[in-house]
């Protein structure tokens, strides 16, 4: 009930963004199940670059955008760090922020295979922060991920 009350107190612009983010999370989740990873990454990157060319303004602060994306990811079933980072890449681009998508694999070969995705803006990690990110070997380009995975 408290969460619902908080939602109704949001400005209408943020309510709209919340619902849009829910849709994007679900959409990317489906795409990741039905489309090769390399194609999804290429489309997201291309779309974000096109959006940034026509969106010079920064209407909502990055931390606020991240909070909305994290909140929306709690209600979309099976949301992963990758679908969250892809959604973030698109949403941040729509608000004029040029972010960097990171995908890495856990370096410890004695444990089961682990991969993680996160999104950064400059030196700040906006989505997917983990205290052990240094243990992940990041791919030099997201487009090489399909070859390794």
Structure, explained:
This protein has a four-stranded antiparallel beta sheet with strand order 3-2-1-4. The chain has helices spanning 2-9, 12-34, 37-54, 62-73, 81-94, 145-148; strands at residues 100-106, 115-121, 124-127, 136-138. The chain is an alpha+beta fold and 149 residues long. The chain has six helices and four strands. Helix content is 53%, strand content 14%. The chain has one domain (2-148). This is Lasso peptide biosynthesis B2 protein. InterPro entries: McjB-like, McjB_C. It holds the Pfam family Transglut_core3.
Shape field:
globular
Radius of gyration: 16 Å
The percent range for strand residues is 5-15%
Tell me the number of structural domains.
Answer: 1
Low-confidence stretches are 144-149
> What is the tally of helical segments?
6
Number of strands: 4
Q: Biggest sheet: strands, sense, closure?
A: 4 strands, antiparallel
> Helical percent range?
40-55%
Assembly annotation? single chain
Strand arrangement within the widest β-sheet reads 3-2-1-4
Rounded mean pLDDT score: 85
- Gap from first CA to last CA: 42 Å
InterPro entries: McjB-like (IPR053521), McjB_C (IPR032708)
Protein name: Lasso peptide biosynthesis B2 protein
Domain Microcin J25-processing protein McjB C-terminal: 36-139
